[in-house]
Amino acid sequence: MATVTGNTNGLKPKQLRDLERLAQKKVAPDEIVGRETARALAAISTELNRRVGLLIHRSGQIETVIVGDYDRITIPALAHVGASGGRLRGLRCVHTVLGGAAAINEEDIMDLACLRLDLMATLTLRDGLPDLLHPVHLIPRQVDGRDWTTLSPVHPANQQQSCIELIEALEDEFVRERPVREVDRGKDRAILVSVTTGSRGEAEDSMAELVELARSAGVEVLAEVIQRRKHIHPRFILGRGKLVEIVLMSLRLGANLLLFDQELSPSQIRSVTDHTDLRVIDRTQLILDIFASRARSREGKLQIEMAQLKYMLPKLTTRDDALSRLTGGIGARGPGETRLEIDKRRINDRITRLGKELKAVGDQRFHRRNRRRKRDVPVISLVGYTNAGKSTLLNTLTKSEIQAEDLLFATLDPTSRRLRFPEDMEVIITDTVGFIRNLPADLLKAFESTLEELFEADLLLHVIDVSNPAWRQQVAVVEGLLAELELDGIPCLKVFNKIDRLAPEDQAELADSAEGVGISALDAHTLPPLLIRAQEILRTVAGKAAVSTANGKRREEEGEG
To answer: Strand 52-57 and strand 91-97: pairing?
Structure first.
């Protein structure tokens, strides 16, 4: 059943009935719009002095009648209409143009591209009658730097080319360029987007990290787009022209996902998804998805679920009409709760329950740490940027087989092993989740119970991947997070990992560094200097602790005396 939507304020009942009758007309599939339908469209548009548009299905059925303003028309969200077997949506748009305005403007191209319409055609008017149709459609390959082409204007009564044959030929060309089966083979194919007000170098470093995050999540990266702006666009985050360019790129490449390097607000996500069929996620959601797929322990799964719910809560919207329906029991007074309010309340209840469960798990972990303290066994914790080699180092030191992959966040759940030092000292060494720049605050909060392991450490080994060109920035990120967690008071030894990938002079410089030790986590022969330095620090810490204890006892005895 066709609908009438848009700016219907102030219309008379007769005008609304005329619009409804227009919606009931049918167009021959061979025509962009029929002669009689064009006359009715021109008449109602002239009477209202507003642009009026039609969304027409390939079958010729009119799906929607849209009422605009004098100089523009807004196509509503088309979430209920899917693409028609190929890459185009299966709908064409025909709308009137008043007052000698440009036949095809930038907004028409944006709607054509972002909504993947079969065709966009504007109908110019003369003395209240149809004048010319100006059709434009997308093409699978750029011509003269454009992803669309305009057809010759034609009068609605003199259409020679078959509309349906043109659309089917376009579908065939799109499929030949990028077969549908390749696009829909079950793997996300993403265009990565970064919008920044900072330097391009910083944006490129962050984009390189986003590429690795996407690879860790099993996402195929098709293209990377970086846009520098003076100000972030409050609605689309990037410029409208760039959004059109990205959507057209996705059409050519067969992408089904837009992945933003910046965290998007709920309104920005809605604005972008309203203008494109592509799924849209940001860096935070990608990290949460990676964590959700990697968590193995009960505690880890609880932490991730809590972080996901906190991320989701502000992004619940009333976009779905079902959410606006009111519910209430028989005889209940008042309108009751909306579906949206019910969903929010359930999420808040679930977050509360998860908090209680995590507190119980944290208490169990605290008791285990108490038993460890009673045995007076020193604790070493491995910290560092994600994928710096912490798990590999733990495996080599303790001859373990903990999962260690060349992926970001390959290890989430904390792992502890016993380690015996050369001079007959036994310690417990613990691997923890890696850090990353712009780590979501909710995720950091959810992992508090896991990160509490770090507070019990006598020594932190800060593992650094010196083969990464941005390792100094990564060190700054980790040190900043340690300071934020108030862990910067614990002795910390820098471990420069992967020195085997450096030039000989750089290896020698790091190997003799006063602030750290150079190693290769894969080569056990490079680890003795690390063990010696760590043992020296632990003995120094133990000596200071013994002196502090003795001084405390002496002060107590003097006070009693």
So the answer is: antiparallel
- Assign 206 to helix, strand or coil: helix
Distance (Å, whole) CA 491 – CA 537: 8
Q: How far apart are CA 134 and CA 203, in angstroms?
A: 41
Residue 364 lies in a domain: no
Q: Is the pLDDT of residue 201 over 90?
A: no
Residues 109 and 201 in one domain: no
Query: Do residues 262 and 280 lie in contact, with contact meaning Cβ atoms separated by under 8 Å?
Result: no
What separation in angstroms does the CA of 95 have from each of 50, 125, 354, 507, 552? 10, 11, 52, 68, 86
Which residue range(s) make up the domain with 103? 3-177
Same domain, 163 and 285: no
Residue 351 forms part of a structural domain: no
- Cα 312 from Cα 289, distance rounded (Å): 12
C-alpha distance from residue 468 to each of 386, 387, 437, 473, 523 (Å): 12, 10, 15, 10, 19
**Token pair for 331:** 């005889």
User: Which phi and psi angles does 299 have, rounded to 5°?
Assistant: -65, -45
| Contact partners, residue 308, CB within 8 Å, separation at least 6 | 288, 292
Has this prediction a pTM greater than 0.85? no
Give the integer Cα–Cα distance in Å for 520 and 8.
Answer: 70
Residues 33 and 63 in one domain: yes
Q: Are residues 20 and 169 in the same domain?
A: yes
pLDDT score of 405:
61
In the chain, the amino acid numbered 445 is: K
What is the per-residue pLDDT across 433-492, written as a single tens digit (0 to 9) for each? 788 887 777 667 666 656 766 777 889 999 999 998 888 888 998 898 888 888 888 899
Q: How far is CA 98 from the centre of its chain?
A: 41
* Same domain flag for 143 and 190: no
| Number of domains making up the chain | 3
Beta bridge partners of 126: 129
Q: For residues 232 and 153, state if they share a domain.
A: no
Q: Rounded CA gap, 416 and 429, in Å?
A: 6
For residues 207 and 118, membership in a common domain is answered with: no
| 12 lies in the same domain as 144 | yes
Q: What's the pLDDT tens digit per position in 65-88?
A: 999 999 889 888 775 444 444 478
User: At residue 496, does pLDDT exceed 80?
Assistant: yes
CATH number of the domain that residue 237 is part of: 3.40.50.11060
Residue 124, token pair as written in the block: 């110019």
Question: Would 362 be classed as within a structural domain?
Answer: no
| Residue 237 per-residue DSSP state | B
Q: How many residues comprise the chain?
A: 561
